[in-house]
Design brief:
Blueprint (H helix, E strand, L loop, with lengths): L14 E5 L6 E2 L2 E2 L3 H5 L1 H9 L3 E5 L17 H11 L4 E2 L6 H9 L5 E3 L14 H8 L4 E4 L21 E3 L1 H15 L5 E5 L8 H10 L2 E4 L3 H8 L14 H11 L3 E2 L3 E5 L8 E5 L8 E5 L1 H12 L3 E5 L12 H12 L3 E4 L3 H8 L8 E2 L3 H8 L5 H4 L5
Parallel strand pairs: 1-4, 1-7, 4-6, 5-6, 7-8, 9-10, 9-15, 10-11, 15-16, 16-17
Antiparallel strand pairs: 2-3, 12-13, 12-14
Helix pairs in contact: 8-9, 10-11, 11-12
This protein binds adenosine monophosphate.
The site of adenosine monophosphate has 15 residues, from strand 14.
């Protein structure tokens, strides 16, 4: 994938309209985590240094889409951004319309303006072209730096790019670069780790990964369905009877590539305080359930991971929200921190696992987009990426 970035276009004297992901936790006007705002600073500073004016837009939460709701206003974000940038950030109380257009027209090079929540208009999420065209009036160039929403075609992610030259910002560039590396031309051996609750959510990813990777290591609840398909007892473990046929077919087609756990931590209840023990996967008794991978599996997976040159990981190895069943997930995170390979962490639970394990900064790339990174790994075309100009 060879998409243009802000480095490939002349921004001098231009007004830049940029989609960012400022979907940050806010309670009663107080931002409890401003990571996502800080993450956009390098792109913002670069654009301003080029002598451009900047109009920023984002969604926040899930408003009804019928107009202003104080709870979902981006105003606190404008204030925080102004502090971080050390300069005023103009705030527009709407994202489209004559008044906002007049404000945007007044902007001088170096000025920054933030628009109100684009999701105050329901049609935005339906990729309404009227909204897209109105947004496009606010800039001469469109920059998308919001990977987390790139898998959805919406007025502010895809529609607007039909009306303006569209390029990526630095955050988006890094996502495309690393996830593209994993899906297009990975340095081999390429090992993929897939975990999480269900096979059914990830059939597309499993299939695509089996065709691209050299090994696919399975963990989490999804392994149980494979065990059942092999005729093993899984007790009260999470298991999906409706996809047993698919699990069987995958085992037959790809036995050489699929690696399954050899032991498991089982518990007599779905509870952190439940009685638990480690058993080989063919010795799970009725009444018990698999909640994590066991030590022999960790060591088997470690041997495979040590040989890898590229690793992509999506989904936890067990119920990592419960400390007693988080060991497998954290052990994998620590192994990835030590091996000599490009390590790419799909967003969502795997991203929070490497953070909780304290090794996020040891990874080559931790994706900011859960759904978006999964669709990328699945080989799907993300509309917000596809529409960006080719180099
Ligand atoms: P996903 O959203 O598909 O990546 O699944 C993540 C969820 O899978 C987490 O909330 C985990 O608690 C859950 N999970 C992982 N392993 C198991 C397991 N063995 N049994 C039940 N749930 C699990």
């Amino acid at each position: 994938m060879n998409k243009k970035t802000i480095r490939d276009v002349d921004l001098h004297g231009k007004r830049v309209l940029m989609r960012v992901d400022y979907n940050v936790p806010i309670k009663e006007g107080v931002i409890s985590d401003d990571k996502r705002i800080k993450a956009t600073l390098p792109t913002i500073k670069y654009i301003l240094e080029q002598g451009a004016a900047l109009v920023l837009m984002s969604h926040l939460g899930r408003p009804a889409g019928t107009g202003y709701e104080a709870e979902f206003s981006l105003k606190p974000i404008a204030d925080r951004l102004a502090e971080l940038l050390g300069k005023p950030v103009l705030f527009a109380t709407d994202c489209i319309g004559a008044e906002v257009e007049a404000m945007a027209a007044q902007l001088q090079p170096g000025d920054v303006m933030l628009l109100e929540n684009v999701r105050f208009y329901k049609a935005e999420t339906k990729n309404d072209m009227g909204i897209a065209e109105s947004l496009a009036k606010l800039g001469d160039v469109f920059v998308n730096d919001a990977f987390g929403t790139a898998h959805r075609a919406q007025s502010s992610t895809e529609g607007v790019a039909r009306f303006l030259p569209a390029v990526s910002g630095f955050l988006m560039e890094k996502e495309i670069d690393f996830l593209g590396r994993a899906t297009e031309n990975p340095e081999r051996p390429y090992v993929v780790i897939l975990g999480g609750a269900k096979i059914s959510d990830k059939i597309g990813v499993i299939r695509n990964m089996l065709s691209q990777a050299d090994k696919v290591l399975i963990g989490g609840g999804m392994a149980n369905t494979f065990f059942k398909a092999m005729g093993l007892e899984v007790g009260d473990s999470l298991m999906e009877a409706e996809v047993l046929d698919i699990a069987k077919a995958l085992l037959e087609e790809s036995a050489d590539k699929l690696a399954l756990p050899v032991d498991a931590v089982v518990a007599d209840a779905f509870d952190n305080e439940a009685h638990s023990k480690v058993v080989p996967v063919d010795e799970v008794e009725p009444g018990w359930r698999i909640l994590d991978i066991g030590p022999a599996t960790i060591s088997k997976y470690e041997d495979i991971l040590k040989t890898a040159k590229t690793v992509a990981w999506n989904g936890p190895m067990g119920v990592f929200e419960m400390p007693n069943f988080a060991k497998g997930t954290f052990a994998i995170a620590k192994i990835l921190a030590e091996i000599d390979a490009i390590t790419i962490i799909g967003g969502g639970d795997s991203a929070s696992a490497v953070k909780k394990a304290g090794v996020a900064d040891k990874m080559s790339h931790v994706s900011t987009g859960g759904g978006a990174s999964l669709e990328f790994l699945e080989g799907k075309v993300l509309p917000g990426v596809a529409i960006l100009q080719e180099k």
